[in-house]
Amino acid sequence: MRRTRDAPPRRGRPPGLPACVCHARQKADLFQANGFNALLSDSIALDRSIPDLRYPECRSQLHYRRLPTAALVIPFHEEHLSTLLRTAVSCRARAPPQLLTEIILVDDASQKPALGGPLEAALAKHFPQSGFARVLRAPKREGLIRARMRGIAAVTADVVIVMDSHCECGVNWLPPLLHPIAEDYRTVVCPFIDVIDQETFEIRSQDTGARGSWSWNSFHYKRLPLLSESLRHRAEPFASPVMAGGLFAMTRRWFNELGGYDSGLDIWGGEQYELSFKIWQCGGRMLDAPCSRVAHIYRNFMPYKNPSNLGDFITRNFKRVAEVWMDEYKEQLYSTNNEEQYRLVDAGDLTKQRAIRERLKCHNFEWYMKNVAFDQPKFYPYRKPAKSLTGFLKAESANR
Ligand SMILES: [Mn+2]
Asked: What's the chief localization of this chain (predicted)?
């Protein structure tokens, strides 16, 4: 298929072409398999031009002449080949070459044939420099969390940039992530995440940014409004209590001092809380950098299954995080969710995680709530559930 940089959708805009009827079936199959329009992705250049969605003042923002080097870590499971390649190619293309020194892809036991030989061949073609881009292969499904750890362990650069496998990096995305890290190795920086439309591949901004948080009754990621200071200086990085999860930059040194992710977390779920809480509680900080933009394909459904032999791993993950980091606040989580389930689930061995908290003399959760997530209770308050009764309900006789 012909792929040029000017092929539709031009500069990240929708193609505006009639749908190709001849491909309708193929398109539907690929959409089902990926959760986005993978057929269209195949017709778009890997290095297509995209709109610059940054604030105009980002263009004149200054960065240190000397910044730490960075490695891109991209874990993937059954990702579509062209979206995976576009992640690597676009991030490489819009980063200063001296700063992005390696790309590590971690294949979490994918079965798609294209992710074997064809991926290796494409990487060799797009990244001819020996050793610059390589693929690590997990022999069996590890899940997102341990796949990331595997990739991070292989990094030699100063800073690890964790990236989702269907992204496109924006104009000059890397220096704004590295600048705050150059000032303090315990600062973790997240880019702004823009939207790649799952149907048209149009790129548009999500909003003007927000701080990360959660709701007690689901432990889902939620957002807190920006503070007045960042409204006045909208291009400046601002503190965020919780990362969205998929994209962040962090020094290898700080990641390792924190013991990485808790390796007892399975597949996905809770890992962004675990890392965010310990970054803050153990003496680091977390920032969002508005001048670093990375676009991501949001999907409406997961095109692949979770392993069926792990039981309720999400509740177990949440419980591990709560037991180690949240002190008495864990009761707010348990009591507003399926409390019985939380009590029953075995969180497993937590001694290693508790030892990290002990060794680094980390703040307690009360400190975190007072100093970092101080407006959380205002926007996502804890509501003690009404006492319920247990027993049997019996229908009254109908002929009353
Ligand atoms: Mn994703």
From this structure: membrane
Q: What is the Å distance from ligand 1's center to 191 Cα?
A: 14
State the distance from the centre of ligand 1 to the C-alpha of 362, rounded, in angstroms.
31
Whether 83 contacts 105, CB under 8 Å = no
For the segment 117-164, what is each residue's pLDDT rounded down to a tens digit?
A: 999 999 999 999 989 999 999 999 989 999 999 999 999 999 999 999
Q: Mean pLDDT throughout 223-234? A: 93
Classify domain 27-297 by CATH number: 3.90.550.10
Cβ burial, residue 77 (10 Å; 0-12/13-18/19+):
buried
CB within 8 Å of 38: residues ≥ 6 apart: 30, 31, 80, 82, 83
> How far apart are the CA of 243 and the centre of ligand 1, in A?
14
Q: Which residues contact 297 (CB under 8 A, 6 or more apart)?
A: 35, 36, 83, 166, 167, 196, 198
How remote is the CA of residue 206 from the centroid of ligand 1, in Å?
15
Q: What is the C-alpha separation between 81 and 90, in angstroms, rounded?
A: 14
- Domains of the chain: which residue ranges? 27-297
Instruction: State the Cα angle at 52 between 5 and 168, rounded to 5°.
Output: 60
**What's the predicted TM-score (pTM) here?**
0.90
Q: Is it the case that residue 9 has pLDDT exceeding 60?
A: no
Predicted pLDDT at 108: 96
Half-sphere exposure of 277 (CA within 13 A, CB side): 27
**Structure tokens that stand for 72 in this block:** 């891109």
| Ligand 1 geometric centre to CA of 75 (Å) | 11
pLDDT digits (tens, 9 = 90+) for 246-261: 899 999 999 999 999 9
Radius of gyration of the chain (CA): 22
Residue 141 contacts residue 77 (beta carbons within 8 Å)? yes
Q: What's the CA-to-centroid distance between 7 and ligand 1, angstroms? A: 25
